[in-house]
Amino acid sequence: MVRLKHRWILFETLFENTSHQDTSIDPLTSHDIYITVKESIQLNFGDYGRGCTYSLNVKYYSPHTNIGLLRVSRDYYRMVWCALTFITQINSRSCTIRVLHVGGKSTFKLFGWLVFNLILIFKINSKVQLNNVKN
């Protein structure tokens, strides 16, 4: 039996000239991230790159904190990392993507980042609720 080994890429999208409270812009979804990464791989590495990254999967993305988690085959994680850094816009919104961590274990090493992400979501929600009460 063959064991498939993966790498987990934790990333953050940094948008230019936007704030978390801007509701006029549609929030990104994990599908938007997936399509953009696949297009970037196709543009930079051609059909070979697109074929090599068949196991690419966006496991988690939070539009509130702009932090996401990708799973890719261990042999081609550098290709995906490179494609992430070349992305300049998603859904016609200017952005840059910063890779925070690359790891081999899915939840143990990245659990701290996900807890941090949840804490940020609660802080953002509490600020929004406080602003609504004051108004």
From TrEMBL:
Domain of life: Eukaryota
Keywords tagged on the record: tRNA processing
Keyword Nucleotidyltransferase: no
Signal peptide from the UniProt entry: none
GO cellular component: multimeric ribonuclease P complex; nucleolus; ribonuclease MRP complex
Any one Gene Ontology BP term: tRNA 5'-leader removal
One Pfam family hit: RNase_P_Rpp14
Entry similarity comment: Belongs to the eukaryotic/archaeal RNase P protein component 2 family.
Protein name (database record): Uncharacterized protein
InterPro entries: Pop5/Rpp14/Rnp2-like, Rnp2-like_sf
